[in-house]
Design brief:
This protein is of the alpha+beta class. Helices cover 27% and strands 28% of the residues. It contains 3 helices and 9 strands. It has helices at 2-38, 65-70, 175-184; strands at 81-85, 90-94, 100-105, 116-119, 122-128, 134-144, 147-154, 170-172, 190-194. Strands 3-2-1-9-4 form a 5-stranded mixed sheet, covered by helices on one side.
């Protein structure tokens, strides 16, 4: 008798285990289907795209276009510095730890410096810009064909419309960004210009 009750108990346990596994499988399927509808990866899908996905360039970069645009350029030096990307028309203020503390868009000057490493050579709190507009927080770092290149912010908030026939060297930024750069970059601070 003990054998038959043990055998029937085993059948019941096996049946309950099979039913539980079926329910778990059903819920896992539903969760996976719901995540796929929402555009989120399920547990059975890789959270990282395979090479060739992401930005369409084959590098597997999952960052958004905005994140790629504001990311500190690779190979832009070490330590505290200012990084200026010519094509992206963007500046990064980088701290001692090598991390950008601030990034912002700028309006380029008519004359641009070549890629390379420079140092802040002089600063002026308030002057008249080479385009005739009063500017503040001027941070100069290069000279190209007799034209001094530097960052500045117009007191009236205007941005220049670079005229190739009038050689100006002011890289214009918003006033708040100009103040941040002024505080970050005393004379001697490296300025790394990248393409």
């Amino acid at each position: 008798m003990a054998r038959s009750s043990g055998g029937s108990a085993g059948v019941v346990v096996a049946g309950l285990t099979a039913a539980a596994l079926a329910v778990i499988g059903f819920f896992a399927y539903q969760a996976s289907a719901a995540q796929e509808r929402d555009g989120k990866p399920s547990a059975s899908h890789s959270a990282h795209p395979s090479p060739g996905k992401g930005d369409g360039k084959g590098d597997g970069d999952k960052r958004t276009p905005a994140e790629r645009e504001t990311a500190l350029p690779a190979g832009s030096g070490k330590g505290p510095r200012v990084v200026y990307a010519l094509k992206r028309q963007r500046v990064w203020l980088v701290g001692k730890d090598g991390r950008a503390t601030r990034t912002f868009a700028v309006d380029p000057s008519a004359v641009s410096p070549r890629p390379g490493t420079y140092k802040v050579t002089s600063r002026s709190a308030h002057v008249q810009g080479s385009d005739g507009v009063p500017v503040e927080n001027v941070v100069r770092f290069a000279t190209v064909d007799g034209v001094t290149i530097g960052f500045s912010a117009a007191l009236d908030g205007s941005t220049p419309d670079p005229d190739p026939s009038h050689k100006t060297g002011g890289i214009r930024e918003k006033r708040a960004d100009g103040k941040a750069l002024w505080l970050h970059a005393p004379v001697g601070t490296p300025v790394v210009v990248v393409p």
